Structure prediction request, 283 residues.
Amino acid sequence: MPRRAVCPTQAIIPSELYASVAGYAYAELQGTPGMGQTSLAGEAALAISYNGISQAVMMVSPGELEDFVRGFSLGAGLIESIDDIYDIQLSGTGAALRADVQISSRAFWALKQQRRQLAGNSGCGLCGVEALEQALPQLPVLPVSPLPPVAHLHELRQRIAAVQHQARSSGALHAALFVDSDGAIRLCREDIGRHNALDKLIGALKREGLDSSRGFAVVTSRCSLELLHKAVRAGISSLVSLSAPTALTVDWARCQQLNLIHLPHHSAPRVYSPAPAIEESRP
Prediction:
């Protein structure tokens, strides 16, 4: 049966709000019109507050939200350590959800000092940033780490496709993954937003106590500066992107000593950071 029409603010069962929602009917535009059913990516608005004060509203895929809140808080620089989060309470129905986060007094004081409202959406990672200092922040320089063994990058695209269960059923979902020091994919997090997917991965890494410097993270999306910010703040030493990075991202990766690798479709992995020993000068 096709999925029934539901008002976005109406209360619906949790399974209908997960990362993929089944039973959407569609009509094909062709010489002989056809009809079918498919699954689509779920989406909800998540309002996040810290110690009772509203901070951000983000459009997210409604799975693994506690991981997202942890990763978002750390990746956006709202807290310095995952230990600053004391509790996360999720509530809400339908497409309107809430996360009430209790953080340490130290973190809350710092948050009030840099007070900002983020009107987030799935395509933009810097919505609501009010100053250049927030878009181009001071970041820690990572310890120098060895590059991942090339064998761990072998057929990585195919291995990623095999674990992207939600994307296979609905499409429209980005993924962020963690490959451990043995070359095995330990974690995969998916979301409609590429920033959200990385936030969820960072939150899962911290929750499970995995050393993010022993292995590497992978993003299936465009690798822009905001993703680099999140990776560096989380202590991730190597970041692999299935899409090419921007020039600014490469410059920052070299400055912060983040290993940055692009994995093209049909050629060898390209290491952009650290810089090659002999680099042609740019025009």
Summary: The radius of gyration is 20 Å. Residues 150-273 form a domain with the Cytidine Deaminase; domain 2 fold (CATH 3.40.140.10).
